[in-house]
Specification:
The complex is a heterodimer of chains A (114) and B (113).
Chain A: E1 5-7, E2 10-13, E3 19-24, E4 31-37, E5 44-50, E6 53-57, E7 64-68, E8 74-78, E9 87-94, E10 104-105, E11 109-113
Parallel strand pairs in A: 2-11
Antiparallel strand pairs in A: 1-3, 3-8, 4-5, 4-9, 5-6, 7-8, 9-10, 9-11
Chain B: E1 4-6, E2 11-14, E3 19-25, E4 32-38, E5 45-51, E6 54-58, E7 61-66, E8 71-76, E9 85-92, E10 102-103, E11 107-112
Parallel strand pairs in B: 2-11
Antiparallel strand pairs in B: 1-3, 3-8, 4-5, 4-9, 6-7, 7-8, 9-10, 9-11
Classes of the chains: A mainly beta (114), B mainly beta (113).
Chain lengths: 114, 113
């Protein structure tokens, strides 16, 4: 079975631009969570979606938004990019909202903002 | 004070050594404790998942939780070069959802052949 997939793998943008990151969960998983991992830090929670509804939001500005589609794939959008948005963006999927021990991470999208 | 503190290392050991990785925390509400392994340019992979205090063993890996000291550990026996990775601790006061999961910074481990 395929694991969590994310696209693109790498992305270079300039300040002020907009970016869309994509995630496909493991087949059968209905929950998708997004995390930001700055170099040298642990992942920080951004959003969780379950059955297309937002179930949690981390302490990130409104420039960050996300959505989940009927096939449970998800997009993370970031507007008005800042240098500090440079990070590895991780997507994780799980069967349900409350299942850390069944949460699987994708390889991430590395975003560089110049 | 950060909720979760983890020494970033780096930690370098010879093959076969016993490795001890640790995290301390300040939030006494944390009850669920996890250790993740993250290889370079990859996403984290769940290694160990424990609830409350005590020990849990899985092959060469042992996770310990001491809630009275707010201290958790991961021991790796007979370490192998393939164990070279960054190890992240994570914890939560409840069983889900993701917004409650707090990660440490990670400890970079290198096991030398």
């Amino acid at each position: 079975d395929a694991g969590v997939t994310q696209s693109p793998t790498h992305l270079i943008k300039t300040r002020g631009q907009h970016v869309t990151l994509r995630c496909s969960p493991i087949s059968g998983h209905k929950s998708v969570s997004w995390y930001q991992q700055v170099l040298g830090q642990g992942p920080q929670f951004i959003f969780q979606y379950y059955e297309k509804e937002e179930r949690g939001r981390g302490n990130f500005p409104d420039r960050f938004s996300a959505r989940q589609f009927p096939n449970y794939s998800s997009e993370l959008n970031v507007n008005a990019l800042l240098l500090g948005d440079s990070a590895l963006y991780l997507c994780a999927s799980s069967l349900a909202v409350y299942s850390y021990n069944e949460q699987f991470f994708g390889p991430g999208t590395r975003l560089t903002v110049l | 004070q950060k909720e979760v503190e983890q020494d970033p290392g780096p930690l370098s050991v010879p093959e076969g050594a016993i490795v001890s990785l640790n995290c301390t925390y300040s939030n006494s509400a944390f009850q669920y404790f996890m250790w993740y392994r993250q290889y370079s340019r990859k996403g984290p992979e769940l290694l160990m998942y424990t609830y409350s205090s005590g020990n849990k063993e899985d092959g060469r890996f042992t996770a310990q939780v001491d809630k009275s000291s707010k201290y958790i550990s991961l021991f790796i026996r007979d370490s192998q070069p393939s164990d070279s990775a960054t190890y992240l601790c994570a914890m939560s006061p409840t069983q889900g959802g993701s917004e409650k999961l707090v990660f440490g910074k990670g400890t970079k481990l290198t096991v030398n052949p």
